[in-house]
Amino acid sequence: MALLPAAWLALLTFWGGTFAGGATFSGAVSAQASLLILALLGAARWRDPLGLGGTARWLVPALLVVVGASWLTGSVPRAGIVGLCLLPAFLLSPAAVAACWKRPRERWLGVAAVGIVFGLVAVWALVRWQVQGSPRAAMPLGHHNLLGAWLVILWPLALAPVAARRAWRLPAAALGLVAVVALAATGSFLAACALFGQALLAAFWWRRARIWLAVALVIVWTGPGAVRWGTAWLEGRGAVPELATPAGGVPGNLARSARMASGSDSSLRARLGYARAGLKGFSQRPVLGNGPGSVPWTIGRFHRPVTGLNPASEVVGDLHSWPLQLAYETGAAGVVLVVALGWLFVRRRRDDLATGCDAVPLEAALVGLCGGAILLLGNAPIAVAALPAALAVVAGLALSCGSQPPPKAGWPSVGLASLYLVVAVAVLFPLDRAHLAYRRALGAETGRVALDHLERARELDPEFPLYRARAAWLETELSGSRADLAGEARRAAVTASDVAALWLAAGALGLESGQPWAEDAVTRARTLDPLSPLNAFFLLRARPTRPDAVELGAEAVAGDPRLGAAVFWERHPALYSRVLERLGQPPVGTRSEGPTALLVQSLDYRPALSFSLFAFRRSPWPADIAPVEVRVERLPAGFSP
């Protein structure tokens, strides 16, 4: 039992809870099943799963009620149904970890096991970083900020044997040093800030470790450059890269601080844009928010991308700040309850320090929670299960050190846990079967077989927009444009509410089949994604006689010069001449009988802009939507369709 939390953490960190792995069928099901099974171990604490005591324990059911009300009143309930179903299990997971670590021997054995997992992740991250030649370490979680956050949260647990002078303190210190190097290799500014806060708190309790904490801060704040500098020095090279500007163009965190202070940091400016969008969404529904899980499907109506800062057709998967995302999705009620729960949990654990408990593990847990709190201010990684699992393990360690004896499991707790498990499985089972069908469609050998699997996925989970949209796109590709398929694509866009690509695809299919709503669909797409030249072009194509036709044409051709070769202009030569005049270009003829090709908006070809992964937490499936026929001979030099 003492090794179970470490095994759960390893399962999610190396497979089911990673950025990409959690979007697969096997990864998602493994994460759900492991969390539900683990929650059964914490069922004995169902009356007070976070050990708050007194009337404060009612804050947990109050949070469940608020999140449930937010889900019922939200505009996209399908987006949050899985999270809502698993929320009770997650709230019980710290109690489950505490149940595995009831006695000091079990606790230290569990901490040692977590330390081994921690070290393996750090080593794996460094190996993959060097082998792949990436500018930043990111694996196994799949993103440098996620890896940095995971390492920061668990770093104090890995160092606890050193502070307690346990027999295995030297291996623990070595793993901690490797983790610091891996953390520096991520180049995560937010993780560096969190580590700074942790070091201040740890130095207050662990005076003997102050020198090591200072060394760790120096390594992390100089970023990947420190790691490359050290590697070059060990290999005996003559020249070494500068600390502030390491190879790969990734600045060190010290240089990053200067850029942020001057307002020239593009990442900070983009995050401020997401924050403004989140505040706009919160202001419209301040009490209960827009519903759990609603950000990827609805934030488009509030986000205003900036040319040169945000890419066209960007999918915003989260607001990069969990408090802000919590406010957007669950309103002020959810924020107040979560802040109260967190504050009371830490206060109760701090009180336990004065009761003669096992102090070092509790101090390590509080330091880890401190780092996690700082990280959540600038990140919202809840959909990547490995990070909530790390927080649950740290909170469980703190809970296990409490002075109150753990309650024994009786029939009420067993009965309630069993009932919850049955309800959760009943809700999740058809959704997971639909996910399996989608996975089979993705790997199908022929389009017809893939379509059969997509139809099955849509039947099992009819409110999931991606299944309906993919089926409509694929059927159109196989059998041509039809009004009913365009209607299915539009229904998918309506269900997802504010995902620009779905509206563009629906509008393009609607134009092909002559649907009266097609122009409105493309208008919605352009409102949500004003930087996309295809949105402007299809809006012009929907009604070439509109008053702003010249402006739309100029915007489309300026955004993508290949659109100047569209066959559409052959039917509207006068309009094309006015567009070229607006752009300050000489007039050219539009008549041509040469070969044609298709210019399309591509989805899921680029990992950094993965439509399926960011918006719907599904594995990328490359697809092309909104085709525009262009003359090959008229394409600008150096361009291809």
Description:
By secondary structure, this protein is mainly alpha-helical. The chain has helices at residues 4-16, 25-41, 59-73, 77-100, 104-132, 144-163, 169-186, 189-205, 210-221, 224-234, 253-262, 266-284, 295-298, 322-352, 359-377, 386-400, 411-442, 447-460, 465-479, 483-496, 500-512, 518-528, 533-542, 549-559, 568-571, 573-583, 611-616, and strands spanning 596-603, 623-631. A two-stranded antiparallel sheet has the order 1-2. Helix 4 runs parallel beside helix 16 and helix 5 packs across helix 6 (144-163). The chain starts with a helix and ends in a 10-residue tail after the last strand. The model is unreliable at 238-251 (pLDDT under 50).
Task: Provide the fold topology.
Layout: H1 4-16, H2 25-41, H3 59-73, H4 77-100, H5 104-132, H6 144-163, H7 169-186, H8 189-205, H9 210-221, H10 224-234, H11 253-262, H12 266-284, H13 295-298, H14 322-352, H15 359-377, H16 386-400, H17 411-442, H18 447-460, H19 465-479, H20 483-496, H21 500-512, H22 518-528, H23 533-542, H24 549-559, H25 568-571, H26 573-583, E1 596-603, H27 611-616, E2 623-631
Antiparallel strand pairs: 1-2
Helix pairs in contact: 1-2, 1-5, 1-16, 2-4, 2-17, 3-4, 3-14, 4-16, 5-6, 5-7, 6-7, 6-8, 6-15, 6-16, 7-9, 7-10, 8-9, 8-15, 12-14, 14-15, 15-16, 17-18, 18-19, 19-20, 20-21, 21-22, 22-23, 23-24, 24-26
